[in-house]
């Protein structure tokens, strides 16, 4: 399986950073034109007893969508995830609707797809599923904040190895 986050070198993010051993360690991958993430929570991420905390749900949506924005940009350019230039995205806005309580004792599945790309902006729809129930949905706007081919970005905090 080719996970988007494995190609985001130097990523120490709490939600998706492969270089953050105490983080959530989400992993996203392609399924057709959609991005999928299957994630299993832990007891320490309860909101109410046996229900996932809303902030954790927001974090996994955010990180899933930003990794997907990067992967989608590469795919639109016909490139592999390990090719240059390297891109990184940050959240511009995120609007989440919590539809049902999300159980904390079973895996959740995130499904995301792109609805618009305009310049550095990518608009993504994302759903959170617990078993057969859609428990949350979101619209997330990702902004490309780093492009390794741009001279002004080469000294950025997003540059490889920083």
From TrEMBL:
Residues 69-135 form the Thioesterase domain. Signal peptide: none annotated. Its EC number is 3.1.2.2. It catalyses: tetradecanoyl-CoA + H2O = tetradecanoate + CoA + H(+); dodecanoyl-CoA + H2O = dodecanoate + CoA + H(+); octanoyl-CoA + H2O = octanoate + CoA + H(+); (9Z)-octadecenoyl-CoA + H2O = (9Z)-octadecenoate + CoA + H(+). Transmembrane segments: none annotated. It is a peripheral membrane protein. SUPFAM superfamilies: Thioesterase/thiol ester dehydrase-isomerase. The keyword Lipid metabolism applies. Its main location: membrane. It is an enzyme of class 3 (hydrolase). This is Acyl-coenzyme A thioesterase THEM4.
């Amino acid at each position: 399986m080719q996970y988007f986050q494995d190609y985001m070198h130097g990523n120490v993010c709490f939600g998706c950073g492969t270089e953050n051993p105490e983080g959530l360690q989400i992993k996203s991958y392609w399924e057709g034109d959609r991005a999928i993430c299957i994630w299993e929570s832990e007891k320490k991420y309860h909101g109410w007893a046996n229900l996932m905390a809303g902030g954790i749900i927001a974090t996994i949506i955010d990180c899933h969508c930003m990794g997907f924005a990067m992967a989608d940009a590469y795919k639109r350019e016909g490139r592999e995830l390990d090719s240059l230039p390297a891109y990184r995205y940050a959240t511009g806005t995120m609007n989440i609707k919590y539809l049902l309580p999300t159980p904390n004792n079973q895996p959740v599945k995130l499904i995301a797809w792109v609805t618009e790309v305009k310049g550095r902006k990518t608009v993504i729809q994302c759903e959170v599923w617990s078993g057969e129930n859609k428990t949350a949905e979101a619209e997330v706007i990702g902004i490309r904040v780093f492009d390794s081919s741009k001279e002004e970005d080469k000294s950025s905090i997003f540059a490889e190895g920083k």
